[in-house]
Design brief:
Elements lengths: L15 H5 L2 H34 L1 H4 L2 E3 L2 E2 H44 L1
Antiparallel strand pairs: 1-2
Helix pairs in contact: 2-4
Length: about 120
């Protein structure tokens, strides 16, 4: 016994499972994950090193670099710098590598939808 499609999903409905399994979508996910996961791990390691040093290496973090500027302060500011650098790097990567593929997939889906 076959089930009828939900309301609004006629015979020309888009098969989103097939789209998700298509080579272009798989490539898009692979490219995305190849950058996002390593960057996330790298940033988390950097963050936890900072937190652990500030908790357990107080003397090191309190060491003056110049004037009243300490290693801990520079590392704390480095957290902000790396956050912005990662964001800018990811945006550049997405614009260059992910957006063309996702635009192609979206265009194909829009064509299928108008049929």
């Amino acid at each position: 016994m076959s089930q009828s499609p939900p309301d609004g999903a006629g015979g020309g409905a888009i098969d989103y499972v097939a789209v998700e399994e298509s080579p272009r979508f798989v490539e898009l996910k692979k490219k995305h994950r190849s950058v996002v996961f390593p960057l996330a791990v790298l940033f988390l390691v950097w963050y936890f090193v900072y937190v652990l040093l500030s908790s357990f290496a107080v003397d090191f973090m309190a060491q003056p670099v110049f004037g009243n500027i300490t290693v801990g302060l520079l590392m704390g500011l480095g957290q902000f710098v790396t956050t912005f650098a990662i964001t800018m790097g990811y945006v550049a990567f997405a614009n260059r590598s992910l957006d063309p593929i996702s635009s192609e997939i979206r265009t194909d889906l829009e064509k299928q939808e108008t049929r």
